[in-house]
Specification:
The protein is of the alpha+beta class. It folds into two domains: 2-183 and 324-381, FAD/NAD(P)-binding domain (3-Layer(bba) Sandwich); 188-315, Elongation Factor Tu (Ef-tu), domain 3. The protein is 29% helix and 26% strand. Strands 1, 2, 7, 8, 9, 10 and 20 form a seven-stranded mixed beta sheet that branches. Helix 1 packs parallel to helix 12 (362-381) and helix 3 (64-73) packs across helix 12 (362-381). The structure holds flavin-adenine dinucleotide. Flavin-adenine dinucleotide (FAD) is lined by residues 9-15, 30-33, 38-39, 42-44, 48-49, 125-126, 152-154, 157-158, 161-164, 166, 322-323, 350-352, 361-364, 367.
Length: 382
């Protein structure tokens, strides 16, 4: 059986970053997919939104102290310096999101170069782990021994890209608590009362979505299954069940637009695509008519477009979610080295932990930051 100093489960954002920083160690990286970094490849429409101008613990659900300590060790500034040094071409886009200028493949090329000394086992799935003096990792092809084991296997979203429950299973085996994993950064399904939105599939509107005291002023996309788009994905991180409300016209009050008792049709006065207004009018059983004809109660119903409150039925599930909320409880790992407090030489980094960011590059930032913070402390102990 081959013995390595360090074995990583998963060749995703966090393990590739960590192994790029580790020197003079024998390192094995086991990845279920045929190629490394499947998520980096497809993320951000193929251009990977890898961080954000504003990175703060407030953009995350999870242990804020751990998040802050980690970003102090390796934050957004250090990540940009790392990519500058390695020649990544990137650009700043809407809402402070940093994307690759050409293709996310450039990030993968950088990591491939920096991890040349590591041994990759691709298309190989970790099935179980046991521990005596060292860790014995059983894959579907072989057994590998590790002095240190890093669980960097990500969350449950997108199983087609290699996601498995292995990280949680290993954590549980060594006595860790798992905060129930649920899909996040995902679209909402709708209750019957909101089915009118389903007929708008393909339309996108800039809205302000209010959830649990947070506001997301970004695009909302009407989809066949419900609602999606940046504002909904971010809101899904905080939504627990219960109501959200949408301001469909955040820049201007509907009451102001309808104050003038004009003969113009409602659909000509409201600032929405005609299809949207038509479906909304039909949902409140109102005909499109001259604004001057509107009665007080009808005006009120239209004004609700500035405060449309409802409870989503659920979400699109793990297959469509970008990330997993929940994971390994952060109170059971060292806040400096990410080592398990239950089992020496066992580490957890990235999305497998109970830290989840909003949409906008926050999740890659967390994966990269937790990886480097771990290495800094691990190097001291090696
Ligand atoms: C479609 C999509 C788009 C996204 N876009 C963005 C974005 O633009 N910006 C952003 O910040 N975040 C984005 N994310 C989230 C981001 O990809 C993750 O948060 C990040 O990759 C987590 O890094 P990680 O290293 O923890 O896990 P991952 O990058 O998921 O890596 C874990 C790896 O472990 C492998 N693995 C799992 N189980 C096993 C096993 N049993 N054996 C062997 N290997 C295994 C997986 O195949 C995977 O490659 C996106 C996610 C998705 C699904």
């Amino acid at each position: 059986m081959r013995v390595f100093d360090i074995v990583f489960i998963g060749a995703g954002a966090s393990s590739l970053m960590a192994s790029s920083f580790l020197k003079n160690r024998s390192i094995a990286i086991i990845e279920a997919s045929a190629k490394i970094a499947p998520k980096i490849k497809i993320s951000g429409g193929g251009r990977c939104n890898f961080t954000n101008k504003r990175v703060n613990s407030q953009n995350y659900l999870g242990d804020s102290k751990l998040i802050e300590t980690t970003f102090k060790s390796f934050g957004q500034k250090e990540l940009l310096q790392f990519f500058d040094k390695n020649g990544l071409k990137y650009e700043l886009r809407d809402n402070g999101k940093y994307f690759c200028q050409n293709s996310s493949s450039q990030i993968i090329e950088i990591f491939s170069r920096l991890t040349k000394g590591c041994e990759f086992f691709l298309g190989e799935r970790v099935k179980s782990v046991s521990h005596k003096k060292n860790f014995i990792i059983k894959t579907d092809k072989q057994m590998i021994e590790a002095k240190k084991l890093v669980v960097s296997s990500g969350g449950l979203s997108c199983s087609s890209l290699g996601a498995t429950e292995i990280g949680y299973e290993i954590a549980k085996q060594f006595g860790h608590t798992i905060v129930t994993p649920t899909p996040a950064l995902v679209g909402f399904t709708l209750q019957k009362e909101q089915f009118w939105m389903k007929s708008l599939s393909g339309i996108s509107l800039k809205v302000a979505l209010h959830v649990e005291g947070k506001i997301f002023e970004e695009d909302m996309l009407f989809a066949h299954r419900g609602i999606s788009g940046p504002s909904v994905l971010s809101a899904s991180l905080y939504w627990k069940k219960g109501s959200i409300w949408i301001d469909f016209s955040p820049k201007i009050k509907i009451s102001t637009l309808l104050r003038n008792k004009t003969k113009k049709q409602i659909s000509s006065v409201l600032p929405f695509p005609k299809r949207f207004t038509k479906e909304y009018l039909s949902s409140i059983s109102l005909d499109d008519m001259g604004v001057y004809k509107l009665k007080d109660n009808e005006l009120k119903k239209l004004e609700e477009l500035n405060h449309y409150e409802f409870s989503p039925a659920g979400n699109f599930g793990f297959s469509k979610a970008e990330v997993t909320r929940g994971g390994v409880d952060c109170s059971e790992i060292s806040h400096l080295s990410f080592e398990s407090i239950m089992q020496k030489n066992l580490y957890f980094i990235g999305e497998v932990l109970d830290v989840t960011g909003e949409l906008g590059g926050y999740n890659f930032q967390w994966a990269f930051s937790s990886a480097v913070a771990m290495v800094k402390n691990m190097e001291q102990g090696l």
